[in-house]
Amino acid sequence: MSVLGSMLLAQRAAEEIVTILNEDDFFRPAHQVVFRALRQLITSHKEIDIVTLRTELTERAMLNDVGGVDYLLQLAEYVPSAANAKYYAQIVLDKATMRRLELAGRNIIDIVHDPELEGADDRIDKAEQEVFEVGRKQLGKYFQHVSNLAKEFFVDVDKIVETGKPMFGLPTGFIDLDKITSGFYPGDFVIIGARPAMGKTSLVLDLALNVAMGRGREGKRGAVAFFSLEMSSIQLVRRMVSMISGVSMGVLKSEKGLSEKQYLALADACENLYSLPIFIDDGSDISPMEMRGKCRRLKAEHGLELVVVDYLQLMRGSRRTENRVQEISEIARSCKAMAKELEVPVIALSQLSRAVEGRDDKRPQLSDIRESGSIEAEADLVMFIYRDSYYKAKEEHRHENESYDDVQEAEILIAKHRNGPVGKVLLGFQPAYARFRNLDRGNTYMQPED
């Protein structure tokens, strides 16, 4: 009650507390509901007070479940000051951890006497996992009755009826890609795979810029977390400046120097970048647990619409595994869990095996995902990039045409789509600027062949 009361008293205290606690740290279900509503207000960048909290709970038909307005007033009056909010939150976290540790202790006793486990090593491994999960504060959510979930769902249905607009996820900014995917939805785990030099990083940079610039249906800007494990942050910025300005980075290495027009274009692009909510982490060694903590804090401070990981196979697991395939599988599961917890799409790039190069048709397949393990199983959407012009240039022992006006055809192959159709989308690729564009012609969206 002290924690929730502090959140109602001070916006800054609320933003700090959501980086410390999760809803399942609270023992009483009513307190979990109130905390979830307060966290949603912060995510939506709304002021927190009794009125906004009451409205949020009313819209979700959960006001009576927490004890009505009277209980909200009781929470607000429970503490005289929010100065000790962090201390209150730590007490709640300590108590929650002790509850989980007690449960883990009971589970370890069961593990010791489990007849299906062979030898002490298996039991020690299982016991370590139990204690490790306590440290991660991820022992699972409480059950929710389907009636509450149905009420929340119907709020979205009413919005569709009121606005006359269909349900649509986070727009990609590419018209034909949006037609087949209907955007990326909160909780989606998206894999983009391709062989080297196909433009994986370029495509996700385009997606990040489109989201940050609000190039979607409603023109709403969204914060993007970009984890670059391969390229440095300054390299990514150079690429983004080139993409926005239409000035190839090759001119910086040219003896001719920059023209006045190119200089002004670069200056305008940098000015544009200053205001974009894109946050880059170029640490070369990061685990899913560390990534989740950084994203949780970023969402509390700035909001969060999209997470990009470049790329999956360069991440390290949060715990010891027997081999690399198991480690990648654990990383994929963690990325999917992060997408669900943060309620944002997570896009992860993936390298493909060399088997692609040995086929006559070099279009990627699901089996080409390197160290796939459970990557394919965990992903909601798997897309591949294929550019025939790259292979033609390679066969003819020449460089790709990188003239400034050159626009090559790129195929985006939707190989798996858990919530929709698969198929092929055609985009334009400009090698000079390493960027993708909508093709200026009709019917670039193709259904799969029978």
Key terms:
450 residues; 10-stranded mixed beta sheet; DNAb Helicase, Chain A; alpha/beta; Rossmann fold; 2 domains
Fold and architecture overview:
The protein has 450 residues and is α/β, with parallel strands linked by helices. It has 16 helices and ten strands. β7 and β8 form a beta hairpin. The C terminus is likely disordered.
Architecture blueprint of SSEs:
Layout: H1 2-9, H2 11-17, H3 29-43, H4 50-59, H5 68-76, H6 85-112, H7 119-136, H8 146-163, H9 175-181, E1 189-194, H10 200-213, E2 224-228, H11 233-245, H12 260-274, E3 278-281, H13 288-302, E4 306-310, H14 324-342, E5 346-351, H15 375-378, E6 381-386, H16 388-395, E7 408-417, E8 423-430, E9 435-438, E10 445-446
Parallel strand pairs: 1-5, 1-6, 2-3, 2-4, 4-5
Antiparallel strand pairs: 6-7, 7-8, 8-9, 8-10
Give the overall average pLDDT: 80
**Any idea of the CATH class of the largest domain?**
Alpha Beta
State the total count of DSSP E strands.
10
CATH topology of the largest domain: Rossmann fold
Helices and strands: which structural class?
A: alpha/beta
What Rg, in angstroms, do the CA atoms define? 25 Å
Termini distance?
A: 60 Å
Instruction: Report the sheet with the most strands, covering strand number, pairing sense and barrel closure.
Output: 10 strands, mixed
Approximate strand percentage: 5-15%
Give me the CATH architecture of the largest domain, please.
Answer: 3-Layer(aba) Sandwich
What's the domain count? 2
The poorly predicted ranges are 138-142, 441-450
| Coarse morphology | globular
Number of helices: 16
The sequence of SSEs as H and E is HHHHHHHHHEHEHHEHEHEHEHEEEE
Helical proportion, percent range: 40-55%
Task: Output the CATH homologous superfamily of the largest domain.
Answer: P-loop containing nucleotide triphosphate hydrolases
